[in-house]
Amino acid sequence: MHLKYHTEGFVLDSTPYAEANKVFFILTPTFGLIRASAQSVRKAPGKLKSGLEDYSWSNFTLIKSKIGWKITDAVPLQNLYFSAENAANFIIIVRLSSLLKKLLPEEEPNTHLYEQFIADCLFLSQNDLSNETMKNLECLAVLRFLHSLGYLQKTAWEPFINEKASIETLSKFTPLRDGAVKSINQSLKESQLI
Questions:
Q1: What is the CB-side half-sphere exposure of residue 103 using CA atoms within 13 A?
Q2: The pTM is what?
Q3: Which whole number is the average pLDDT over 44-53?
Q4: Kind and range of the H or E run holding 58
Q5: How confident is the model at residue 105 (pLDDT cuts 50, 70, 90)?
Q6: Nearest-angstrom CA–CA distance, 114 and 191
Q7: In the chain, which ranges are continuous DSSP H helix?
Q8: Which of 71, 65, 33, 31 is nearest to 52 (CA)?
């Protein structure tokens, strides 16, 4: 008998396998990034389907077997594909999700990074932002990722890293963005993860 684990999480990506199954990359506060499979979710009447759409924020019930994580239940909290204010905001959520999938080691919990990521995604989905503000938020979110993972040393934008996203904070970040992008690119190059 396997123990059941309950956690919220965010579906960063998924990959089909076999006839009707899928493997999901889920960011959780409890277990970090996990790779979990679900049976028959590509069939039309799949009961887990709504909670397992890419870019869904859901509550999961999981079991861990010898061959990995298995999803037994997924109850959606919000699907950011449907709730994003506009397509440009959603594209940033997709890019941030893709970057996290590349940067994070599996099964290393980082509650702070998870909470920041969810807060930034919700901010993006609930606000109609200018192009400049979206660029600032994306840059700041990546800085937060790198800082949280230890790839970024103290910098001039340190005060922004722990602040919640707001229109005011993001407008103050504009003059620092070019320097931040250079630092991000250097950190990503040195990490050799991308």
A1: 26
A2: 0.91
A3: 74
A4: strand 56-65
A5: very high
A6: 20
A7: 80-83, 87-103, 111-126, 131-148, 158-161, 167-173, 177-191
A8: 71
